[in-house]
Please model this.
Amino acid sequence: MAEWTRGLRLELQGSGVHFSTILPGYINEVGMFAKFQIKSPSLLGSTSPSKVASAVVKAIEKDKLELFVNSSPARMLSVACELSPSFGDWLKRVLGVVDFQRQKVGKNCDLEFKN
Model:
């Protein structure tokens, strides 16, 4: 999605149409993580819906290309994945992201089958 937004921003530069990507990371309090009652990996942290909303306003007002809302380790992980996808995959495993995503998927499947 971020790459697509970057492309649109370049293509429509000077047209008066602006694009921004908000990268919230894991959001607490609402959404799928609250629904499944699971916490994000501690090193990556999470953020609140109000911080995400503030980032959206900032992106619009200041015409920001991308805004990271989550903690610094999450930003570093994103950069690592961009620079070297294989290193990024390894880092995700080490930081517990892969196990976390599996846990989330498992809980989602459990809910689907119960309904």
